[in-house]
Design a protein that fits this description.
Layout: H1 5-14, E1 21-25, E2 32-36, H2 38-47, E3 50-53, E4 62-67, E5 70-74, H3 76-89, H4 94-102, H5 108-111, E6 116-117, E7 124-125, E8 128-132, E9 136-140, E10 145-149, E11 159-160, E12 176-182, E13 187-192, H6 199-206, H7 212-216, H8 224-233, H9 245-266, E14 277-282, H10 297-305, E15 310-314, E16 336-342, H11 352-356, E17 359-361, E18 369-371, E19 378-383, H12 392-397, E20 398-403, H13 422-426, H14 437-455, H15 469-480, H16 482-491, E21 502-504, H17 505-516, H18 523-536, E22 540-543, E23 555-559, E24 562-571
Parallel strand pairs: 3-6, 5-11, 14-19, 14-20, 15-16, 16-19
Antiparallel strand pairs: 1-2, 3-4, 4-5, 7-8, 8-9, 9-10, 12-13, 17-18, 21-24, 22-24, 23-24
Helix pairs in contact: 3-4, 9-14, 15-18
Length: 585
């Protein structure tokens, strides 16, 4: 505290009026002269938010205007325009307005004297995330969604004008409640509290309905009118009538996984121990090589791109990563990169280092540079196929998401009885120019509630998986191939002498290779196919039982003095036939 009277006098000397022009009378001519005071002008501009931004990486001075917490980058001519329009709105006399137009005090050299500031543009920590709306600022934490009113002096975070979301935010009650059922396996139950306010929540629910055909079609096979009435009443329902407890639990786990993944993507913080990339896949099991789709996978990431800076790449080209400039649209401000509609043989291994470490950008006609891991974007993938790589390295980096075929396209080659799109559920398209503000607000609330749920788990060892049974079966069918299945159905037929018997692996391999007439097949590929077949075949229990394997998980025997690798295909026990029911008549 200043107690000296001289300090107070100095304070008075430094005080300035906001009126930046002065009017004096020339002693000789007696005429009134108007001049602009540079010191007062800079004070006036400071009161209206004009600053220069401290940026050690910028070659030239960066001029900005700060309004509350919103920062707009401007040029020197924008400052003159602001003052000129301000003077016109207040009907200042012509002489003052002429001074503003002609004064050199609005040149770039002069405006460099504006106050320089260093602003905090960070919008996240390891367990919080900030969002900026036109009417307020919102902070999401593991426990709550906090609204900071505009002009709150305690809120010291800033945002560039282009990063302010275009819709107002008003908090709504919780739309769901998640409860952990099994910590060891990360299984969750969900209570849907409000499935009608937010269209995007309704869409997410329906993409999680793995058993919708049993619920909505099979039960009403002979009564289409009743089926239609049920579908209308249960338009967004995760626990429909006619489903078993296990089926409902499976659908709820699928929904919990999506909520978790949405929250993960909305959190800008990147943790080395949680460096994942969501991969959205179809749940439907089709014929080998069949390409499913139209299930609404891409729409989820399109929604996220409305709230985050994103770059979309086409994954249809399996040689996508051969392009040295593939990421030339990406910069330090990019929040996530979507590789959409990935080809069947686009290897996830090509993205391993990008997901878990720094990212190298090689722009066209410019020098390459590196974005540190902490500032690099998150990745996400969509595909109509199961991953080509399904090993531990891939699983550690991907956050799988499974989409039901609730939304689908009827064609001559499938058995759907109609086409259902996202539009059909809402009788309109979502996120069009006339999308109501009420729906925008409800969708934003749902997304922020997903983020809050994720943040409540982000410091624990939790990764919520979707139900993977169908995905695993699709993977096995992909590994298998029709040719191998035809051969194995005969070679390992039920009751075959090749079951429950040690076989020399080399000889079985040659038998198949001669059958298929393929020369380039490796033993590793053959074993992969055989393992897939044994997992899918109903009359086979397992391949190479653990109690028969050595420490390398192999069965080896000496045959005629030579060590050979063996295989043992164990048959499943036959089901006992039920005795015929007695006729009590």
């Amino acid at each position: 505290m200043r107690r000296d009277i001289n300090d107070f006098r100095d304070l008075l000397k430094m005080a300035l009026p906001a009126k930046f022009w002065t009017e004096t009378v020339n002693e000789k001519s007696g005429k009134k002269e108007i001049t602009i005071s540079a010191v007062r002008l800079y004070y006036f501009l400071q009161l209206n938010g004009f600053r220069t931004l401290r940026d050690i990486n910028a070659a030239n001075t960066r001029y900005i205007q700060v309004t509350n917490n919103v920062v707009k980058q401007i040029k020197a001519k924008d400052v003159r325009r602001f003052v000129r329009e301000w003077s016109e709105e207040r009907c200042l006399n012509e002489n003052v307005r002429n001074l503003i137009v002609n004064s050199m005090k609005f040149s770039e050299t002069s405006l460099e004297n504006l106050k320089e500031v260093e602003l905090d543009f960070s919008n996240f920590t390891h367990n919080t995330q900030l969002f900026f709306f036109p009417n307020n600022n919102v902070e999401v934490t593991p426990k709550e969604i906090i609204v900071h009113q505009r002009g709150d002096t305690a809120f010291n975070h800033y945002v560039w004008e282009e990063n302010v979301l275009k819709h107002n935010f008003k908090p709504l009650p919780d739309m769901f409640k998640l409860t952990c059922l099994d910590k060891e396996n990360n299984l969750y139950d969900i209570d849907v509290l409000d499935c009608k306010s937010s269209p995007i929540f309704g869409y997410v629910i329906n993409t999680s309905r793995l058993h919708w055909r049993k619920e909505m079609e099979e039960r009403f096979e002979d009564n289409p009118e009743e089926a239609k009435a049920y579908a209308e009443k249960h338009r967004f329902c995760i626990n429909g009538e006619g489903l078993t407890e296990d089926e409902i639990r499976e659908q709820k786990q699928n929904l919990a996984n999506k909520i978790f993944a949405i929250g993960y993507m909305l959190h800008r913080f990147k943790s080395p121990s949680r460096a994942w990339a969501p991969q959205a896949m179809d749940n439907k099991i089709g014929e080998n090589g069949e390409c499913n789709g139209r299930s609404g996978k891409s729409f989820l990431f399109k929604t996220l791109s409305l709230f985050m800076k994103s770059v979309k790449l086409s994954g249809r080209n399996p040689k996508l990563m051969d392009n040295p400039h593939v990421f030339d649209q990406v910069n330090v401000h990019t929040d996530f990169v979507l590789v959409d509609d990935c080809a069947q043989y686009l290897s996830m291994g090509l993205f391993y280092d990008i997901i878990t470490s720094d990212m190298t950008i090689n722009p066209k006609n410019n020098q390459s540079y590196s974005i540190p891991f902490e500032q690099s974007p998150k990745f996400a993938f969509t595909t109509n196929y199961v991953p080509a790589d399904f090993d531990a390295s891939t699983e550690a980096r991907l956050l799988y998401m499974v989409f039901s075929d609730y939304y689908h396209q009827q064609t001559e080659s499938n058995d759907y009885i109609e086409t259902r799109s996202i539009r059909d559920d809402f009788n309109r398209d979502l996120y069009t120019a006339d999308y109501p503000e009420k729906d925008w607000n409800a969708d934003i609330n749902f997304l922020l509630q997903c983020l809050r749920f994720y943040l409540s788990l982000c410091e624990s060892n939790v990764k919520i998986y979707p139900p993977m049974d169908n995905i695993i079966q699709r993977k096995y069918r992909q590994d298998l191939g029709n040719n191998f299945e035809d051969w194995a159905d005969s070679y390992f037929a039920e009751g075959s002498s090749n079951l429950d018997k040690l076989l020399i692996r080399r000889e079985v391999f040659e038998t198949y290779r001669n059958y298929a007439n393929v020369k380039g097949l490796t033993m590793q590929s053959f074993t992969k196919k055989l393992r897939a077949y044994c997992c899918l075949c109903p009359h086979i229990a397992e391949l190479n039982p653990a109690d028969m394997c050595n420490t390398q998980n192999r069965i080896s025997r000496r045959i005629e003095g030579v060590m050979e690798d063996m295989i043992y295909v164990k048959a499943a026990p036959k089901k006992e036939e039920e005795p015929p029911k007695k006729d009590n008549k």
